[in-house]
Specification:
Elements (H helix, E strand, L loop, with lengths): L4 H23 L1 H12 L5 H14 L2 H17 L9 H32 L5 H8 L18 H14 L12 H20 L5 H14 L3 H17 L5 H13 L3 H13 L1 H7 L7 H15 L1 H7 L2 H8 L1 H22 L3 H42 L3
Helix pairs in contact: 1-2, 1-4, 1-15, 1-16, 1-17, 4-8, 4-10, 4-14, 5-7, 5-8, 5-17, 5-18, 6-17, 8-10, 9-10, 10-14, 12-14, 14-15, 17-18
Length: 388
Amino acid sequence: MQKIKYLEGLRGIAALITLFAHLAVTCFITHQQFLYSKINNWEVNSVLKLFLINSINKLVDGKFAVWIFWVLSAYVISILFFKKNENYDKVLIGYFTKRYFRLFIPVLFSVIFAYLLLKFGFMYNRKLAVILGPPYQNGWLDNFYFFEPDFFKAVGSAMYATFFSYRPDYTYNSVLWTIQNEFLGSLFTFSIFGVIRHNSKRYILYFIIMVVLIKLEIIWLCAFVLGHILCDYDFSNSENRVVKYIKAKELRIHSFKFIGFVFSILFMVFGNEILDFLQISPDYNNLILSVFLVYICLRNDYYKSIFSSKIPYWLGKISFGLYLIQLPIICSLTSYLILANNTFQGKIVASVITIALVLMGAAFFTKFIDKKSVYFANRVGDYFKQFS
């Protein structure tokens, strides 16, 4: 299936934000706090101060970026479910059978990469945490690689624990906490379509599913359901009168492209404050804002132009590799460089080197591992399709 360039670009920017977030908590916590205090002391409008602080926070909000991944993932994998002349049984069988391998192979290589660094004594994150002291010591930086490397346990964690029983206290790559949700969320998305398909009452069934998930407090799974619903809304050829009416009104609203662009940015920046004013629980902030960002990106030409440009699109193509290899590099090379020069300038240099190395490593990873995993997973899916 052909990539939607601007969605791929959005995924790439989200992956880059996770890298910024990890670098921030590795070496810039106190500097970030100092910057915020400086901004708060400026003699400018308080709304402008809040805009600047919130904008910086969004650039280093790794958890929000992960929610964007989940919504995008559900949207993209659901497209074939709503295209005409598709053999939906074959699509479902292909998706179900290949999904594990699509994720497992890149995960395995990222774990082996981290294992080798730990095995040969190249993980310096805990030493750096001691040198930096609070809030780094006994914090995020200090939580990784405190165990002895074991190859068979590393492979076992990649094969099973990452997907079905993730353990934050014994992982070779902490970014893998999202993979279990990604995998199970994908299967849940496939299951929704497998049961509901193009049922004329499906929006009522979607609503019931959402209510149940909210009652069960499985908020992250709502991101996949809403991504699937949004894809249904955009691509389905079996629309009811209500949906057609909403689309007609929506088309008028989005004809004001620049106004929509500006207001959407303001909503993204001040989203937490707006949702708090509306008395919506903070537990839903990332869900609402990530779904909104994907939605507006699908509707607004300014977003499409930005995210389909060369750099975001290229980042999107290497986004999975970028996401998977960044933490082992930060805990090894980045930490080593900061130990060698523990100054603000030294941290900046270490961060620049890290970003460059992660991008180059991600490009290599994508070409030689990720693309191969896609090919192999598709072969697995194609094999099982013949039994439908």
